[in-house]
Amino acid sequence: MCGIVGILGHAPATPRILESLKRLEYRGYDSAGIAVHDGGELIRRRAPGKLSALEEVLSENPLSGNTGIGHTRWATHGEPTEANAHPHMTDRVAIVHNGIIENFRPLKEELLKKGASFEGETDTEVVARLLTSYLDEGLAPKDAFQKTLSRLVGAFALCVLIKGEDDLMFGAREGSPLVVGLGEGENYLGSDAMALASLSSKLIYLEEGDWAELHHDSVQVFDAAGNAVERTVTISQVAATMVDKGNHRHFMQKEIFEQPTVVAQALGRYLDPNAGKVRMPHMPFELATVPKVTLVACGTSYYAAQVARYWIEKLARVPVEVDIASEFRYREPVYADGGLAIFISQSGETADTLAALRHAKAAGQHVAAIVNVMGSTMAREADLVLPIHAGAEIGVASTKAFTCQLSVLAALAVDLAAAKGQINEEQEAAFVQELETAPKLMAQVLHNDEAIEEIARSIAPARDVLFVGRGIHFPIAMEGALKLKEISYIHAEGYAAGELKHGPIALIDENVPVIGIAPKDDLIDKTVSNLQEIMARQGKVILLSDNAEEEAEGMFARLEMPSAGELVTPILYAIPVQLLAYYAAVEKGTDVDQPRNLAKSVTVE
Ligand code: G6P
User: Fold this and answer.
1) Is the dihedral of CA 121, 125, 129, 134 positive or negative?
2) Residue bearing the CA closest to ligand 1, atom 5
3) Is 384 helix (H, G, I), strand (E, B) or coil?
């Protein structure tokens, strides 16, 4: 989603803004722009496409000036053209914006009636023109900005410069995150800690409805009612050095290969192998009395929730509901008194998941957030935060965050089972021991990556690919299909293996690869029968299994997996499906780390 950076500084702003925008590239974007204060004027450069296109524009027409704002835009209203790129400007203001102004149409009509003219089709331009109209009426900048905010409906983060006011920058947060960075005689605004990593580690996370007035030597935060408020200054843990790809070709590849390390790191925070116990952080509620668990998330995080349902229901015998966040609150869910609602999100900012979290909190549920980004809005609003310790994930397609989410969820399922008295100490110790084996087994799977690459090359020309699994591996099939769609643009679907014959089997012919996820468990025979049905119709079956005896005849390919227990297999089988998608995308030459149309942190509903 859109990235924002603002610098009220003492050194040339453009190279510093560019560096910060590069740190925000991982969020996904399709155009970019910068505006600076220069000699009393506001001047901007914009370009559709990647930051390299903006850099080219800047090398032909450089910008000077020490104060400026920059933006990477993920298109919502209007195509990713130069005219729609931010900053949006009038003769008096320059604005960058993340989010959506829902009432932009009536505001635009009102402004048109007053004689304003518009250059593009974006909702952001309406904010620029509205603010300008209040300045034109003679309001002081602060009053004009506050009055503008009071007219806006929607989710947004804004960063604003006003012509002639080169010691002034405004920021506002309503629904989309915005962070103030504090410097020495300089101050900054950014979408997240990552944007400000090279500028400042002293951060103020704005709260909903907050807005901020920045000068070189001071920052004042106001709440929605306009009262000056004190907000906590936190010290960012994000390293100033740019996260790099190391020896890997893409961030996604690096992140896939990091998984044994980060999963070990995550498990290390939640397991005490010596005591044979799970060690969760202090919980502000009694786990033993939780009558029901609600799991809510989007995208890959949603599939982690799906896996967790199997674990929690089987081990702890607590009923679990799993929902896609964008659907959750609209179906008017029935909560159980004292229920635990868990929100899973790598970024901790996904708008739908956040809205669902607030819905559950307002309904009196105990609210837990499983997040990667500490300091994120979900982490700050939940009663209980379970960090996944995956480290910065840059590839838009989530990989290591998924396996770390699964690790934390597995530990939680065991803890809940123990709290409920469904497992005894010996069983808990056995589960802890089993989870401890995950990193080593994951490394074994990664050693097999050449075989996976070869299979991936063979599926790269396909138009459609199916992934099938049963039980706890059904969500892994869906995650495999999502990964393949996201980065290789091959149409893929994940199905419960038993459901194929109720429709999707009609798609099968000799051109359709079917990835069968079939570890040796109680369901393997049934899954393999379903794969036989596919082979009987010439489908190209690719089997992922640890069952060496399984008949390979008629199969297009098979990948030998290590054997593991039920808490570890979903974590292990996530790896080959990630690598299949990765190598298929490389074979097709797509932009693996920033696939078209996708954003890493989706802050609009
Ligand atoms: C976006 C990303 C997905 C991610 C989903 C949920 O759609 O492209 O990779 O799984 O958001 O993100 P979250 O940060 O809430 O886990």
Assistant:
1) positive
2) 299
3) strand
